[in-house]
Amino acid sequence: MADAASREFFTTRTVGEALAGFRPDRRTRTETVPLHLALRRVPAEPVTAPHPLPGFPRSTVDGYAVRAADTYGVSEGLPGYLTITGAVRMGAAPDGAVTPGCAIAIPTGGVIPAGADAVVMIEYTAEVMPGTIEVVRPVAPGEGVVRADEDAMPGQEIIGGGRPLRPQDLGMLAAAGVTSVTVYKKPVITIFSTGDEVVPADTPELKPGQVRDATAAALAALVADAGGEPVFGGIMPDDPGALEMALRDALPASDVLVISAGSSVGARDGTADAVARLGPPGIWCHGLAIKPGKPTLLAECAGVPVIGLPGNPRSALVVFRLIGVPVIRLVGGCTAPPPEPSTRARLSRDLASATGRLDVVQVTVDDGLAVPVFGLSALLSVLTAADGYIVIPDEATGLDAGSEVNVILYA
Amino acid sequence: MADAASREFFTTRTVGEALAGFRPDRRTRTETVPLHLALRRVPAEPVTAPHPLPGFPRSTVDGYAVRAADTYGVSEGLPGYLTITGAVRMGAAPDGAVTPGCAIAIPTGGVIPAGADAVVMIEYTAEVMPGTIEVVRPVAPGEGVVRADEDAMPGQEIIGGGRPLRPQDLGMLAAAGVTSVTVYKKPVITIFSTGDEVVPADTPELKPGQVRDATAAALAALVADAGGEPVFGGIMPDDPGALEMALRDALPASDVLVISAGSSVGARDGTADAVARLGPPGIWCHGLAIKPGKPTLLAECAGVPVIGLPGNPRSALVVFRLIGVPVIRLVGGCTAPPPEPSTRARLSRDLASATGRLDVVQVTVDDGLAVPVFGLSALLSVLTAADGYIVIPDEATGLDAGSEVNVILYA
């Protein structure tokens, strides 16, 4: 991003350029959290098994621990006979060892006694007289047994760094006795709304020309989904000086600044002026080749990424999903983002698109058919009506009705 | 589920039968939560717009509010001329109305003044002398304007009931001034672990035969993902009487009981005995046609669904994803579950499967290739190594290498 400092004229960038090129170095510090608060948190480093898992050889079936060689050649017609010399209790060490010609009863999960190298399932045995079983099927060494280090060898990586922890990862850590994890702190994302017309969402009666702040509530939710901690910076009037001061105040405690800018050209220019004065390297791009969402500003000021969003709520949310969410994940140390829900569908009608610009089209999906939801970019109802969206890439001039499209679904 | 009460012998069910037939009537009560805590919560009823949105006709562009008829026939070669009689300020009512032959300057998002029915973009105008613009392109009525009720008409449903709230839904509610939502309470899911061998995850040193409770930590995470509130009931020994008492104590405060049962046949039978004594209608099925996960128990006791899971952590988690998560969503009022991430892939090798049984196979996915992760059902590492899983349906006898499969991805 160093070249941005010397850029005299702000260029419009493609979404691909932004995703590849706007990659701030900032990372949050780390903290240690208990396991029950670690779901979806991002481990700062791999976690290794402190000891072998499960830690002892276990039976995978209910049956008898035996020496496999004692069962070789047995069959329904020619059973083998073994003397029962004991029984393994769950959660306890076996009392004795398995000696030649003998067997020890064992439940699923029990400790394999010394001397035994296999477990014959109870279904293939019968206690023909007290203390003696017949065995009608041979077992190979290792059959019916989980090795002491089969789930993890000591020192083996059980959890990688950089990928949000999933439910099964927490299970694995619990199994290993790892009850706290060092993770990246959640990046603090300070969200500013701007615009003389914007009032708080809890304003009961609007004066003519006023609109409630819809974008901040939705952005906060997207920030939380991306693993960030949303903080409201407040609603700023269309006054670059006041905005600059508010942004400057928020810089030290923020990992990313997000500004949903005023809608008019003047308001947007004012936002750019305020951001430009925050500090080097400054504005990286002003204008993104995307529809809706062109008036997007990306900057880095005093080590903090700054994302200026379009004033229209719908455009702002479209751009934030595509550009803002990856930035938050990056700053939060997430190098392996979770998969997004998606589905293949056929397009219900032709869609036009200009080359050199990425188009994001909201769609409903019903029975494999993706139906575009049209409406002005000022309308939030287009987003709430949609099940997901399709992306028409920069190079395409449109999509034909019936063509197969990949729909990213809203979860 | 009424027929379950009279069932003398417990039957094995298919997963399809369980999903269609094990549908408890229980629903949580409702509560009202503020908007900033409402993400992914399930609205108990639809929310309607209390007034039209945006509430006033707005400009979608920077330009001049005009009477469309005043621009008819104008062109680059034959511009029209209009007198500027004012300017709309953001967030304020216009000072005057647009009269014939006149125009009022307006920023994007400004209130359309009375008399105007369109906005001509500033790009198609020029202020040829102070107070007069020339217009070089005609506009149609409605062009450049969002109608006062275009985002929502008063009384129109803006959010449906039963679907977890998404970021854009919160934005829409904020726009409408709806700052709290009536949602289903999160169902309380009490999780019991059983087994003489199971010790808490924070046990630093294991005695021979002991294993730490891995399942409870992972189940709690899956419960949270499904919109539930996990509560730990504790680790119970293999003692049906003690388990029954603990379950009975937990019933009044639980919306669902989950028991990860001991691994051995005796322990599983003990769990079934304890559940059977909890109350009518009792056990609905004991045994599920799924691999892994056969020793699954589904019951409803005194109005509370009870899910008995296999003792092996991996089997327990597989079954809980398929059967437990839908039950939690149902009890929590969610009638439109969010989409799951998935991807199409080619299978790397042949997979055998028995008919009449659903097989769940863990896979990694790399470059469109789904590679099965094999290992005993006792191994958690199979789940942590996997990117997702494929389902081989009951009727299939297996899948061929190269066949296209749908992989449900772990998020």
Task: List key phrases describing it.
4 domains, Molybdopterin biosynthesis moea protein, domain 2, alpha/beta, 18% helix, homodimer, Molybdenum Cofactor Biosythetic Enzyme, Chain A, six-stranded mixed β-sheet, 7 helices, 411 residues, Molybdopterin biosynthesis moeA protein, domain 3, 31% strand
Main β-sheet of chain A, in a few words? 6 strands, mixed
Number of helical segments with 4 or more residues of chain A: 7
How many strands of chain A? 28
Structural class of chain A, please? alpha/beta
CATH architecture of the largest domain in chain A, please? 3-Layer(aba) Sandwich
In the CATH hierarchy, the third-tier topology of the largest domain in chain A is known as Molybdenum Cofactor Biosythetic Enzyme, Chain A
Task: Name the strands of the widest sheet of chain A in spatial order.
Answer: 7-4-6-5-9-8
CATH level 1 class label of the largest domain in chain A: Alpha Beta
Shape of chain A: elongated
Low-confidence stretches of chain A: 1-8
Instruction: Give the distance, in angstroms, between the N- and C-terminal Cα atoms of chain A.
Output: 33 Å
Q: Report Rg of chain A.
A: 31 Å
